[in-house]
Write a structure and sequence with these properties.
Blueprint: H1 2-13, E1 29-34, H2 41-55, E2 63-68, H3 69-81, E3 87-89, H4 97-105, E4 111-113, H5 118-126, E5 136-140, E6 142-143, H6 154-157, E7 162-163, H7 166-179, E8 183-187, E9 195-196, E10 199-200, H8 201-209, E11 216-220, H9 229-237, E12 244-246, H10 254-260, H11 266-279, E13 284-291, H12 298-311, E14 315-320, H13 337-360, E15 366-374, E16 380-385, E17 390-394, E18 403-411, E19 415-423
Parallel strand pairs: 1-2, 2-3, 3-4, 5-8, 8-11, 12-13, 13-14, 17-19
Antiparallel strand pairs: 6-7, 9-10, 15-16, 15-18, 16-17, 18-19
Length: about 425
């Protein structure tokens, strides 16, 4: 979502004649777009500003803006602690960024724009064409969260759930397709909670599927509570909707899920997985896991391991519990860090073994790959298969934007390597 937001910030600042630069030592304005999910995000802000200070020691100071969720959560602290920062702006106030920059050009005092004004934000962005020209492009359809998991800072930095209209989203999706996008990834903190005028995510997917040049649709991130029957049916009916779902579970222990305020049980999660498999037999899953949540015993941890082995997630993201200021879990007694680290290392080795075994099943198989770009200084192209696996092939021809049949020859920890066989008939990807 921060990538999407950063693109839209660029679209906004072009209106006041700012353009992106790769020559960082000569920039007039730095915008640090931040995430607050993990513990060290704030430290990274100070580190990055330290590097900017060093680069501009004998030069005119650039405008420094801290944007995003760290700005939302710790804006006043940032301004007081680091005087080099000119302003902070939260994720729901980006529509005011030009006003902020113009004021700072006039040497106005530091500013803090961190109010929640998501409707005005998207009203402003809707008037600007999305300039993203990536083959695989992001589209934010929903923001905010009403679930209030006790470990999560999102409700406090992104605000309550808000869904954009299908009309404005299909307009922006068409813009992205005109720019060259062959795949769109629909984004939301709880993307399957999308609900605007009784239209659900399945309705949005149906409308976007009508875009002729768009070949693939994905969405992230889902909450188990918001997985409606119509969305399950969408996986059965829409060929453009890719057969992999990121469905965070966080823990395999009902006791820990209850302590987290996740509002679902493991049995309910497994029932949902089964429903999706029945609707789409070739579907696969990825997930997020928090290891060492306060109160987690070895038995709780083993239940999480059991879940990983049971479902065999093809991608997983696991972290030791990170206490976020302002969340209900912040003051809870932590599991001993040594124990948490041992559990995490063990869990990640199990997850990696499952992933490796899965990748071995792909060797010598022919799979459709959407190629996104040429690898710098090499005659190789990078793309992804339907399951979001990274694939690299060698080619003297330009493969960007094409869906090609690829025979997988080998794999490593992160990438599949293959050779292309033939072009796919794009009609196979009609909705």
């Amino acid at each position: 979502m921060n990538e999407y937001d950063s693109t839209r910030i660029l679209d906004l600042t072009k209106k006041i004649n700012y353009v992106p630069t790769t020559n960082l030592s000569e920039a007039n304005c730095y915008i640090l777009n931040t995430c607050h999910i993990r513990e060290k995000a704030t430290d990274k802000v100070y580190h990055d500003i330290g590097r900017i200070k060093k680069n501009f020691r004998n030069k005119i100071k650039p405008i420094i803006l801290v944007a995003g969720c760290v700005a939302q959560a710790e804006g006043e602290i940032l301004l007081k602690k680091e005087k080099y920062i000119d302003a902070v702006i939260g994720p729901q106030s980006y529509h005011k960024i030009n006003e902020m920059i113009l004021n700072l050009e006039k040497k106005s005092k530091s500013e803090n724009f961190t109010e929640f004004d998501v409707i005005e934000k998207f009203d402003t962005l809707n008037s600007l064409k999305n300039s993203d020209s990536n083959i695989s492009s992001f589209l934010t359809v929903q923001e905010g969260c009403d679930k209030f998991c006790k470990f999560c800072v999102v409700p406090y930095t992104r605000g309550p759930e808000f869904s954009r209209t299908i009309k404005e989203l299909t307009k922006e999706a068409n813009q992205l397709a005109e720019n060259g996008a062959k795949e769109i990834i629909l984004l939301g903190q709880n993307v399957n909670a999308y609900n605007n005028k009784k239209k659900r995510l399945s309705d949005l997917i149906f409308e976007i599927s009508k875009i002729k040049n768009l070949k693939r649709i994905r969405y992230s991130t889902s909450h188990p509570l918001d997985f409606s029957e119509d969305l399950i049916e969408a996986h059965k009916n829409f060929k453009k909707l890719m057969p992999v779902i990121h469905l965070p579970v966080q823990s395999g222990s009902n006791k820990i899920l209850d302590a987290m305020n996740r509002k679902h049980t493991i049995n309910e999660y497994l029932e949902l997985i089964e429903k999706l498999k029945n609707a789409k037999p070739n579907i696969k899953f990825s997930s997020d896991f928090i290891i060492g949540y306060p109160g987690e015993t070895d038995e709780d941890y083993q239940q999480t391991v059991k879940l990983m082995k049971n479902i065999e997630f093809i991608h997983s993201y696991s972290f030791i519990f990170s206490a976020r200021p302002g969340t209900p879990a912040f003051g809870l007694k932590k599991v001993d860090q040594k124990i948490s680290k041992e559990r995490l290392i063990n869990f990640q080795s199990i997850a990696e073994r499952i992933k490796t075994n899965y990748r071995k099943t792909l060797i010598n198989k022919i799979i459709p790959v959407l190629f996104e770009n040429k690898i710098k200084n090499e005659n190789k192209y990078f793309g992804r298969d339907e399951y979001f696996n990274s694939v690299v092939v060698q080619s003297d021809n330009n493969l960007s934007g094409k869906i090609i049949n690829v025979r997988i020859l080998k794999s490593n920890q992160n990438t599949l390597y293959g050779k292309f066989i033939s072009k796919l008939n794009y009609e196979n990807f009609a909705a």
